[in-house]
Amino acid sequence: MVKEVYSKKAPAAIGPYSQAIQAGDFLYVSGQIPLDAETGEVVEGIENQTHKVLSHLKSILGEADADFSKVVKFTIYLASMEDFAVVNDIYGSYLQKPYPARATVEVSRLPKDVRVEMDVVAYLG
After folding, report:
1. 42: CATH
2. pLDDT tens per residue across span 19-30
3. Distance (Å, whole) CA 125 – CA 25
4. 68 phi and psi, to 5 degrees?
5. Which among 87, 89, 94, 88 is positioned nearest to 114, based on CA atoms?
């Protein structure tokens, strides 16, 4: 079984992809950036951007009757590793043990020049 998962509380895809795809017992959530879902504008500041991205992920997970406790893999993309400590603290406030596996990487550029993007894989079984 493969089906699209969509939340109106997160921004619509800005390209030929889905917000998330459920494939069997797994949910693959596309990278989320800190856009206001209503205006399409980028929110300012690394703290606000991080909360906005996590809020989008939470909304999409909720459409699949899941939450962060079901996430088995996070990938965090940062425009600068100088933001790592701030992003890590905020990220940690959304999660409980056992924490998911995670990769955090600095990239040369993100869509719309945001400072953070995240994607997740959740196990729904």
Report:
1. 3.30.1330.40
2. 999 999 999 999
3. 5
4. -65, -20
5. 87
What is the residue range of 37's domain?
Answer: 2-123
Global pTM value: 0.96
> Can you give the pLDDT at residue 1?
86
Is the Cβ–Cβ distance between 81 and 106 less than 8 Å? yes
pLDDT higher than threshold 90 for residue 69 = yes
pLDDT computed for residue 6 by the predictor: 96
With b for 16 or more beta-carbon neighbours within 10 A and e for fewer, the 48-86 pattern comes to ebbbbbbbbbbbbbebbebebebbeebebbbbeeebeeb
Which amino acid would we find at residue 18?
Answer: S
pLDDT value for 92 = 98
Cα 86–77–85 angle (5° rounding)? 15
Q: In whole angstroms, what is the distance from residue 74 CA to residue 68 CA?
A: 10
